[in-house]
From TrEMBL:
Designated name of the protein: HIT-type Zinc finger family protein
PROSITE patterns linked to this entry: ZF_HIT (PS51083)
Span list, region Disordered: 178-209
GO molecular function, one term: zinc ion binding
Record keywords, A-Z: Metal-binding, Zinc, Zinc-finger
Amino acid sequence: MPETIITSEAPSTSTQFNHPSHIICRVCEKQFSQYTCPRCNIRYCSLHCYKSHSLRCTESFMRENVVQEMQQLQPDNETKQKMLDILKRFHEEEETDSMDEDDSYLSEETIQKIMSGNQISLDDLSAEERKCFQRAVASGELSKLIKPWDPWWLKPSAKYISLGQDGVSLVQPLVEQDSVESSGNDMEGNQLHDIPPGPETPLPPASKLSTADPSPLLAVHLIDIIYSYCFTLRLYNGDWQSDALESAMVLLGVSSVLGKGGQPETVLEALLHCLEQTSSPAYRHMGGLQFGLGLLDDVISLLYLGGAALVCLLCDTQRLIQAAEKDLKSEKLHKSKRVEIKNKLKSAERKVYFIMCWVHEQPAEVWSSLAALVNAEKSSAVEFASSKKGTVRSEKVERTGKPLIEEVQ
C-alpha cells in the first residue's frame, strides 16, 4: 500500500512532501505520525496506536531486548579465567599453613566443575588431588569447612522426651507434609523432630529376654555404650546415615562392650577404655584426650535427662547397627570377613536391645546417681590429664577400684 501524502494547493518541493511529519499514522489513519516502531518500522502517532498496532510485534521486541541484556551480563572468557585464578590463589593460601604447597593444588578442570555446581567424587580427582584430600581428612582440616553439629541431647526439647509405660513414644513425629504446614505454628513441636524417635513397638521386660538375672554391671556397660554413641555422632557431625557401616565400625571400635565383648566392672574402668580409644592414632585428629574428656560431659548430660532420653539413644544406636547390616550386603568383602562383621553387628544389636529394655524398667533416681558418679570420675581423669598431658592407657582395675594408669610416650 503506497504511503498517503497530504499535499496543499500551494506549490511545494519534493522534500516538503516526503517529510516524516507529513506521513499519516498507519494505525488510526487519522493523525500525522510522529514515531516509528523499532521492530517493524511502521509509523504511528501515539502510545495508544503503538500498543494496538501489533501485540506480537511488541512482545517479540521486548523479549529480544531482555535476552540481549542477559547475554551482555554473561561473563566472557577473560572474566571466567580471572575467577579461576582468584579461586586457585585463595585455595593455595588457605592450605599452605597446614599442607605442603605441592599437596594443596587443585586442577583447573576440578575447579571448573565446582564452579559449575557439579558434584565431585574421588574418581574425579587426580592422584595428587586424592592424596591431598585424604591428608586433609586425616589431619582434620576439612572439619573447619563444616558447620558444627548441635547434639540433640543438648537441645532444650530433650528435657521433654516422654515415653509410655510400654516404652513407646507418646509424641509421634508427623509426616513430612504435615510438619511443613505446621512449621510456623508449632516451633516446640518441630524441635522434637531433632530427637531420635523411641521404639515403635512395646518393650518387653528384660526378664523375658534371658533366663538369667540381669547383670549388676549393666549400668557400667551402659556408660560405655553412651560414650561410644556420642563419639560416633560427633565424629560424623550427627549424620551417621551418610555411612552407616563405617559409623557402626567406629561405634564397635570405641565400645568395649559392643565391639570386644568386654565386661568392665567399674565406671572408671569403662571410662578409661573409652578415653584410650579416643586418644589412639586413628582418632587423635578429633582432639585426642581433651576431646574425650569433653565427651564425658555428654555422658553426664544424657544421664541427667533420664530414662526416656537413654531409651531414645539406644533405639537410635539399634537403628544405626541395623542400617549397617543392610549396607554390609552390598560391600565387596571376603566371605570370612563379611561373616565376621555380620556376627559382630548381630551381637551388638542384641546387647543394645537388651540394655534398652533394662533401662526402661529402672526408676528415675538411678540416673542422677549414676551421673554424679561419672562426674566424680571425670574430675579424677581431668586431674590426671592436666598433670601428665599424655595418652591414657588403662589396665585392669583392681578390686579396690584403684586404676593402674601409665603414660605412653
